[in-house]
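User: Continuing from earlier, I have the next pair ready.

Assistant: Great, send them over.

User: Here they are, in order.

Assistant: Folding the first of the pair now:
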Amino acid sequence: MNVRRSAAVLAAVAVIGAATPAAADPSPSPSQALPSALYGDKDPKFDGVWRQSLALLAQDTVGVKPAAKSVQWLVRQQCADGGFASYRPDPATACDAKTMLDTNATSAAVQALTALGGHDDTTGKAVGWLKSVQNEDGGWGYSPGGASDTNSTSIVIGALAAAGEKPDGVEKDGKSPYDALLKLALPCGGDGDGAFAFQPDKKGELAANADATAAGVLGALGRGMVVKPGEQSDATCAKAATPQQAAANGASYLTSALAEDDDHLMSALAGAEPQPDYGNTADAVVALAARGDTAQAEKSVRWLEKSSASWAAQSGPAAYAQLIFAAHATGTDPRDFGGADLVKQLNATGPAPQTAGETKASDEKEDSGSDFFGLWWYVGICLVAGIGIGFLFTGRKKQRQL
């Protein structure tokens, strides 16, 4: 799922930007180094667990066994109640009421750790926590108690399905996640034409959102981030009386939106010029392939092969993972993706995967001080916003409760 963190970044910048030198060097000092087990070299405050989960899930998808210490780092990020925050710099310190738990990070971790196997206690607690924070309408928001949104509800559905749960049987006050999704689906005809909205606006109106639609199609199908090509299916818009029809409607919208812009989607962040949205395009490929709408999915994955290299290199492990998921969903070789080896590039962003003869004990060694992250991230965030690439955390277009 394409969980965009840009809103959270911009919110942080608005608070601290005036006091932070825009040209300062964001590089951490040795004492403020990133955890050695973490994938990626950018500030993990908003996406540490997310990008780690995607990296590990993508490696498993292509038959790569991740470094044991990277898996252990993810496991240690869990709070005692089962939830995950976006990032905990010191996992030895217990979570408390101030720890901002994150349904998206928790769901991504469940999908990754379930795929890797051997972490039933961790995933079981995480699923229990997700159930405990389900909203009365059957859905989930990004943070516990937040209004349900399509993206969060859909990624939780993916986690439930990965863990062996039946999402339609996970109810709150008689409402399932699918009830929440159907309320966020736009009718056919007019603006939106079968798309999903992220959330209703202040007036209760729904507006089409391609990012939410890609997530909503997967959620309505009960699928997670990793899919195989589905059976050939026509995406025809009709009244969304069932999750399956809502998925078909969303797929129809995505197909049209992709075709309008030469097989990719566009992003228009507040205050920024419209530009190609590589992450959302990759997510749309996965959603369409899961439904069997392979014609447009294959056209769009070809566009990604030609166009996404610079974005992925700049964005890091989550971006490589999204491209690997898109390649996998369409039967494309991720080791020859437009001439690039996505697997090798992903592996290079973190600890080397396990190899024959490598001992688990040596791989699990951690630098005791490496989990403490200094104040340099404030400067880094402002610098990122200043050059117009605040979307690089590859997270959803949504406001996070700060």
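And the other member of the pair:
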Amino acid sequence: MSNPIVHTGYGQIEGRETDGVRVWKGIPYAKPPVGELRFRAPERPASWEGIRDGERYGPICPQPGSDFGAVEGGDEAPVQSEDCLYLNVWAPVHEAAAEPVQPKPVMVWIHGGAFVNGSGSVPIYDGAALAAQGDVIVVTLNYRLGPFGFMHMAPLGGGCVSNAGLLDQIAALRWVREEIAAFGGDPERVTVFGESAGGMSIASLLAMPSAQGLFQRAILQSGASQVIDPGLAGQITAGLLAELGLDASRREELQEVPTEIIMSAAASLLERFGGKRAMMLFQPTIDPATLPAEPLAAVASGASTGIPIVIGTNKDEGDYFFHGDSPVMTPEQIDRSLREMAGLDDASHLTPMYPASIEGQAQIMTDLFFWRSAVRFAEAQAPHAPVWMYRFDWHLPGHPFYHKAVHGAEIVFAFGNVELLSRMGITVNEEIRRLSRQMVGAWSAFAHHGTPDTAEVAWTLYDEHSRATLVYNAETELVHDPDQEKRRLLV
């Protein structure tokens, strides 16, 4: 059997076919953002002669080590490079038919990793199972991370931009719009889906004028509106320049600083800020040219009118970030955190819910950083488009990672990659496979039809009256306004 060759607008690329799915890896969607293009908006990729080999993933973006777990990791450490703007495409093999095959909906995955880690090539994001089971085209991508993707550089001038990582995502979506038909995809049925920083990226894309028209549906997993004030973002940029011995007047010298020196300076800056695992120094920021308004406010005003969304969180998100050796906050620190995260002058009505313990701190993060943000975003979009809410509750008592429904636990289920759980000592049984089929079915139904309803699982729209939430567990069920009393205090 010959390998599948696709003719794109930039040249031919040869993929591979395995078990009824074709895949093309390492496709450039922009020029390498190196040299003079560092800290600048992505540019269209160069064309190539001959047939490009699409057997291997492209390099991942420079980043510190990942500790997500054995399910995410591969057998070898991937190559890191600023030349990282590549994407991958999976497509189910078309059966021979008398009638022409209709273009399939496209699902574009935006990975998480706190805007400093991750790539589109880790094993849990392999799109083969989702493409085959969901009858969709799956695209995963890399985007610039950390100081290269999310330093507030626009104020320095000279063609530098802020939110470069988001602009990379938009460039990838433009590539999808222009090229995906050659892979069997429908450019008018594009669903973006992503988790954590990927979900937060999608919230920003919904608010960015330059992203309009590039996707028609969105799934936000454990991430909603999240930006930092441009004043703070500017301080972080100034701090990193200081670590490098530079200032704004010497911006041009940044183009010559070796990658590893910039990464080392970013690590030193994080240590100066306390070195907290969950701290995000590099993330989207308000910027007139790229992200002119905070995403929650933009969506509430109708910036993403007509784009249906699925949004949700995991029941125990915060337990991923806190462990037995984590420092315990004092009651005063907990009170301050609650006031800051909820934007309140007085949080005395909330403090009784969160004891001064590791468990209390984890619950604060679950409730305020993740759940509250998702509920508020759902409320903001519901007047302008259909919204469906979910919560992922499945867990495995006694397991070191899946002992609770922690941050990221749902990803292997949504991708149909639950067989990878065996790497973590989990016996993959019918309960696990059924839950994965339910999520793949809902996600792909949404991509096909704009609604996650399936024959197996009916899913009611979310609104401020019913607050219907599909709870994914060993027995999936629709729950109206779960944890109602807590929600009323928090939202």
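Worth noting for the second one:
The CA atoms of residues 131 and 466 lie 33 Å apart. The chain has one domain: 5-329+358-490.
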